[in-house]
């Protein structure tokens, strides 16, 4: 009771009007600006999809080329940010470093506190989008103490990110044998590009809501994006992709699956099956479906880890046929399937959530822009039901 609607976790509160992303949780449908994600992932580049989210339409071939060039051009980081990396210890989680570096961008680009200028507004968005994979790759290299690699403007966004993770300083290393060189295959670029597209927006999820909330106070846009990174890191949200992989490794063998399913069902055990369940999808997650198809397609080509795949498959089968999961509408979500593919791309586990950040950045930027352009927008300021004395 009380004067206000009590809605913990905002399960039934619409916080805004939006034209960006549509989800039908009953029918497993997800659309960006009217386009079904199955018609976008793997069919349009991640940068074109980013343009679509931010500008409302897919770019013409010329606009696409210009956007791509502009993103390459803006990919460099001020050297001051590199000194910030140096202040952080070995073993720092790349998400912590990314949050700090994105926040620090506000110190380098002060002008964006005043964004009446349409061009400044668009440049601000392109700048963050361009720098995010660079920040992520440098955060990783810094965490393991390898020399930082600068972005290569001759490479497309997604290829450049793989390059920055893998490259040996001072040139190419070709002859170390399988898995020990920095060669980047087109199939790897395409797979990662599709994964980024599937993460690009998801309407008012926790991190996007955070970006909008911080944006609603008129805070600097880069600070709003940094707060999105913080919200995404949690294991109930983007951090789940890292935890899924930890969990598959913990299960270790198909024969142990029933034990962990039982733990997940035990109401006295806090253990949850990571990569299962979703606030909006009480039916299949269309992003997971698309990723599963991609996984099947790439099984041979990318030499996916068959042991991990077998465990994942057994977990999925056990959960899907179990009443506990059925009654609650718990299906595998996007985070359940991304890990096996990312592992085949030789991406370290601690980079899974940073990849979610790179993918979600255009969504955050589109949502932040929509908020700013919405004449009805107000500072986010919910009320409470006071239960003290
Ligand atoms: N394993 C076991 N039980 C679960 C799970 C799970 N993964 N997820 C939900 N439940 C149970 C939960 O205990 C509750 O049972 P009961 O009604 O008996 O109390 C019921 O299902 C409803 O769960 P909830 O926590 O009230 O649902 P929610 O909408 O608040 O939470 C969720 C959604 C995604 C946080 C949750 O399903 C979860 O923690 N999943 C595991 C983490 C995960 O995979 N997160 C990634 C989400 S997709 C990527 C993204 O968009 O970030």
Automatic annotation (TrEMBL):
Presence of keyword Transport: no
Catalytic residues (UniProt): 278, 335
Pfam families named among the record's database cross-references: Citrate_synt (PF00285)
Catalytic activity, reaction form: oxaloacetate + acetyl-CoA + H2O = citrate + CoA + H(+)
Alphabetical UniProt keywords: Transferase, Tricarboxylic acid cycle
One term of GO molecular function: citrate synthase activity
Pathway(s) per entry: Carbohydrate metabolism; tricarboxylic acid cycle; isocitrate from oxaloacetate: step 1/2
Gene Ontology cellular component annotations, sorted alphabetically: cytoplasm
GO terms under biological process: tricarboxylic acid cycle
PROSITE patterns, sorted: CITRATE_SYNTHASE
PANTHER family associated with the record: CITRATE SYNTHASE
Family assignment from sequence similarity: Belongs to the citrate synthase family.
Protein name: Citrate synthase
Organism: Arcobacter caeni
